[in-house]
Amino acid sequence: MGEKENKNITIGDVAKVLGVSKTTVSRAISGKGRIGDATRQRVLDYIEENHYRPNPMAKGLADQKKYNICWAIPGDSNVHELPFFQRCMAGVCEVTMATDYDVLISLVYEDNISHLKRIVENRKVDGIILGRTLVDDMSVKYLKSMDIPFVTVGSTKEKNVFQVDNDQEKACKELTFKLLNRGYKKLALIGGPLNHVVNITRQKGFEMGLKAAGVDVKADMLFLGNKTVEDIEKAATLAIKAGSECILCMDDSICRDVILKLRREGVSIPGDVGIASFYNSDLINDNQPQITTLEYDPKELGNVACKTLLKLIDGEDVPQKSLLGYKVLLKESTQ
Amino acid sequence: MGEKENKNITIGDVAKVLGVSKTTVSRAISGKGRIGDATRQRVLDYIEENHYRPNPMAKGLADQKKYNICWAIPGDSNVHELPFFQRCMAGVCEVTMATDYDVLISLVYEDNISHLKRIVENRKVDGIILGRTLVDDMSVKYLKSMDIPFVTVGSTKEKNVFQVDNDQEKACKELTFKLLNRGYKKLALIGGPLNHVVNITRQKGFEMGLKAAGVDVKADMLFLGNKTVEDIEKAATLAIKAGSECILCMDDSICRDVILKLRREGVSIPGDVGIASFYNSDLINDNQPQITTLEYDPKELGNVACKTLLKLIDGEDVPQKSLLGYKVLLKESTQ
DNA sequence: TTGAAAGCGCTAACAC
DNA sequence: GTGTTAGCGCTTTCAA
Fold it and tell me: Which residues, at least 6 apart from A265, have a Cβ–Cβ distance to it below 8 Å?
């Protein structure tokens, strides 16, 4: 108690006390420009002791940057997708923590990206990370037209877009192939909305897996574009009726619905039919029996996306597409 | 095509073209200060046509504001809490949309609020919304000490804190009372971590409901502070064994676990035992049978919290505590 | 009603 | 190696 000098101290204050110029202080902080070791240390020490914090507005105004990036995620996403976005965002924050940047939120909708537009046009951020990609993505097109750095989590067919994704095609191919090798002959694939790029990719991987095992794609069963729980349950019923030996679910949410449906119908897993999912999550990973799935690391996705964006902002070279790894977890559901 | 004048136009540019001073343009935009109707309109028209956008950094520097607020949520929250925070955040964004403010994310942990500290100390925001409250909340204490406007979603015992919450005490009391009136004699309450204020509040409401119906609190069963699924399942089993006629679950996540457990044990709802939850969500609202619950509106919570914060930032008077409504939904699970 | 000018806190030429 | 100075784009006295 006693001293109450909470008033924000500026670079000028520091300079005055130390008897140097503002420039010198600035140089000591930024590390740019020539400055004597002794002087620098003196400034740094003083700053440390007195908790000097640069004013982000002043810095931003001077160097024409905002020191904020935008994390744009669907505002209408399925409840079950939330954990993915949350973890991914944690990965982003982890990276920004070590920099001067912070993360601004934007909620985008499939047919309404006005929130994103506002943030970009008001120049509140230096770059954007798009949390997911659609087949015909308004956000991607808009950002390309605005000539602002951005990277997508998820793939896109648009040209000249920086993308970070797991190698889902390869992953799905591998899992499909392994299942076929385990002796399953007739595979069904139950999938979600076809305007999500990820669903297209997974389908492709699935078909590649079939081909690799010499199975005719047409011989197998595709139930795609399901939107509601009812759609999915219907697909599950049809798959069973058609004699499917193993049902591949395009994501964990679908998988959960299928499992619940089969349980209600008295269909045993893996006794009557095998089950596997192309995405693992808390939703299904404590299921009995344990489910065969693909595992990705959403946090790493956020990490890499953020690092990529920051490099992009700094004008550094980055690969157009970063493909991250995956794990194939073979479990009891496909014995 | 042809003209490519995407370079950001400034207040000075506008002034020059219109043959007025920067001051005049500024006044036309802000509405502050005296200015002729004709002049103002002329400026406004020009600005509209030429898509002038004020530079947030310059504005921020000049008036010492950041035009950002912080939305601080737990980084380690239970998967099942995510939808709540997401909806709540949508409510916040809805409000900021109509203002100059944007929303900066901060992930806080029960024992680590360094991310929040960084944002506050770097002066990146004008105020903070805390997404939840703990019994002994580091974030609340820290923010109080920093003398920066903030409001909590959820209640707290700390003095002089602006809070927005549903009237959970009253809600829980009402539901408990109604259940007792329906003929249930022996109620059990299964609850989560006791360091969450919301759980304390709900417990209190429960006990008030008992008292209101003339039931001795001690005569009933409290299973509190459960953290894991195993804890909850154990509690459910004990409640049944002890002859509970109706189990009240403190939230939807607990409720879901209890339902699944009972189903596995072959206990029928509501045949053998009634079930109710103090929080409704997608997790349970498509359950068969339908579950008796309390319903709140997370989005409205975000709305009110954000409006409150913005007023606080503007120095306006706001009530210290805003209590929002609720609905009691009596369903099949407590027939 | 309007304008000139100072200033917000920081950066970066350009001297010395 | 260090200081001077001129901005960055906006707000806000204070004059006119």
Answer: A237, A240
Looking at the complex, report in whole angstroms how far the Cα of residue B178 sits from the nearest Cα belonging to chain A.
31
CB B203 within 7 Å, strand C: no
Reduced to 3 states (helix: H, G, I; strand: E, B; else coil), residue A61 is helix
The first and second tokens of residue A181, run together, are 């090798």
Which residue approaches D8 most closely, CA to C1'? A62
Nearest CB among A56, A105, A122 relative to B53 is that of A122
Is B115 in the A-facing interface, judged by CB distances under 8 Å?
A: yes
Q: How far is the CA of B11 from the C1' of C14 (A)?
A: 28
Cα-Cα-Cα-Cα dihedral sign, residues B136, B138, B143, B146:
positive
| Burial class, A5, CB count within 10 angstroms (exposed 0-12 / middle 13-18 / buried 19+) | exposed
Look up the domain containing B311 and give its range: 68-166+299-325
A73, A79, A80, A81 alpha-carbon torsion, rounded to 10°: 0
Q: Which two tokens stand for residue B128?
A: 């903070």
Report yes or no on whether pTM surpasses 0.70: yes
At residue B79, what is the residue type? V
CA distances to A69, A242, A273, B189, B297 from A333, rounded to whole Å, are: 42, 20, 8, 36, 39
pLDDT (tens, 9 = 90+) of chain B, 335 residues, equals 323 345 789 999 999 999 999 999 999 999 888 899 999 999 999 999 999 999 999 999 999 999 999 999 999 888 889 999 999 999 999 999 999 999 999 999 999 999 999 999 999 999 999 999 999 999 999 999 999 999 999 999 999 999 999 999 999 999 999 999 999 999 999 999 999 999 999 999 999 999 999 998 877 799 999 999 999 999 999 999 999 999 999 999 999 999 999 998 999 999 999 999 999 988 888 788 999 999 999 999 999 999 999 999 999 999 999 999 999 999 999 98
**CB within 8 A of A319, min separation 6: which ones?**
none
User: Could you give the angle at the alpha carbon of B316 between the alpha carbons of B310 and B319, nearest 5°?
Assistant: 85
Task: Tell me the residues of chain B between 131 and 150 that have a Cβ less than 8 Å away from chain A.
Answer: 147
Shared domain for B195 and B236, answered yes or no, is yes
Please state whether strand C lies within 7 Å of residue A320 at its CB atom. no
**A53 to B89: CB separation less than 8 angstroms, yes or no:** no
The nt closest to B40 (CA vs C1′) is C1
* A146 → chain B, closest CA residue: B6
What CATH number has the domain bearing residue B34?
1.10.260.40
Last residue of a domain, one of A63, A81, A107: A63
Q: Which of residues 74-93 of B touch A (CB under 8 A)?
A: 75, 77, 79, 82-83, 86, 89-90, 93
Q: Which two tokens stand for residue B221?
A: 């069963």
| Number of domains present in the structure of chain A | 3
Question: Which H helix or E strand runs over A37?
Answer: helix A37-49
Nearest CA-CA partner of A217 in A180, A183, A169, A256: A180
Q: Is A286 on the interface with B (CB under 8 A)?
A: yes
Indicate whether B256 and B189 sit together in one domain: yes
Strands A292-295 and A327-329: antiparallel
Beta-carbon contacts of B45 under 8 Å, excluding residues fewer than 6 positions away, are: none
Nucleotides, chain D, CB distance < 7 Å: 1-5, 7-13
- HEC letters along A195-232: CEHHHHHHHHHHHHHHHHCCCCHHHCEEECCCCCHHHH
Last residue of some domain: B45, B63, B81? B63
Mind giving me the DSSP string for B57-90?
Answer: HHHHHHHT---EEEEEEETT--GGGHHHHHHHHH
